[in-house]
Amino acid sequence: MALLSFDQTSVTVNVGQTANFAATISVNPSLAQKGFYEGYVNARHDGSIVARLPFGLVDSLTLSPVSHDFGEHQVGYAQRPALTVTITNNTSQNKTMDSLLTVANYVLTPGANWGTAFAPSQTRTFTIRPDNGLGAATYNPTITITGSNGASMQFRPTFRVTPMPTWSISATPDEQIFGTLAVGYTQPAARTITIRNTGNQATTLDALPSIPNWTLTPGANWTLAFAANGTRTFTIQPNAGLAAGTYSPVITITDNNGASVQVQPVFTVIAPPVITTSALPSGTVGQVYSATLAATSVMPVDWAIDDGVLPSGLSLNETTGVISGEPTADGTFTFTIRATNDAGSDTQILTIAIAGASYTVTFDYRGATGGNATASKTVTNGGTYGTLPTPTRTAYTFDGWFTAASDGVKITADSTVNLTAGQTLFAQWTGAGSLFVKKTSNPARMIYKGSVTLRAD
Fold first, then answer.
1. Residues of the domain holding 92
2. pLDDT tens, 30-80?
3. Number of domains forming the structure of the chain
4. What distance in Å separates the CA atoms of residue 321 and residue 301, rounded to the nearest whole number?
């Protein structure tokens, strides 16, 4: 039996042509020894052409095991146990292992006597384990182990790291604006909200909550589990026949793993405003005035004077409903205000009374001995002086209050105030005395007995 055999015994080649052929060389293992050999292909045509085909039989080292699955673990896993890999010298010669390669994400540690020669049938070992703290991924490198005389083996570990389980959901959109409609509206159409599983685990949504004034309807498969990045839907719709007001509840959607998301719809129902201001405060000429009109309305109103006029010096802010300014004339002013929103308007008749300016009247008692405790009082233009002090003075009669110490205009409680500045009123008095006249025989000399009145100025 030959050491080598070929599956091609002859090939015909024409002159001037190139022969291309494939042949399989078989080695008889019972006759072979480890070493290097050459096979020959002979071509005979007016001479011999020899093609040399070198081949070799190399020594063998075996690896056990040749692969290992370290399993699947979540991020943050504990250090994994190391695996021992055994290399057996199945050759007829001593062998020496090369240094272990550095492999990303794995820790390789040579066993005892790794770098020293070991005889046929002897072994060497190394350990391997996944590195600590790896992120979520699959780690399956091909690791080449080499030794002397070109010995080479491959080991394939596998380690899968999965993310920590998370449960979260989102809503799109998370706000639904249904707009503004007047009382008696036609019910708006339902709108769809999509809930997405934004975690990395399957989850199941809880039943939809019951929300006053709103109708929530779950979509298909709402109560069935759905995978990460999967979706479920529901519709939301304001109820019909709601009263004026703004309806904007915060709706919480939850799952059976504690995740939640909030959705807030907004719907406003309006009615014509109703003015609630029924009276306004009075004012005074020359003094700052401010009063705010009010109306019930779920949305802003515009204000206007529908009829009549405000007191001179005052104006109305059409947005805020504030009447303000500084009156310049007294009197009573009646007017009609109007409040308007998108649903209609309301009117109200109001009155503002503006009093004249107020001034201080000071009293000069001019020697009074009683009733002189009041030093001054305040009076208002257009009104009367009202009650005035009544002083007394020994041996004098009080004649009243005058605008001057002598003569002047007499002021009484019923006198109308018409001032431009503060005023002093003076007390005027009449004094009493006796003059005696006696008749004598001397014509040039007459004595008169009677009384006269003396004025105290």
1. 61-162
2. 444 444 444 545 555 554 444 444 444 445 799 999 999 999 999 999 999
3. 5
4. 9
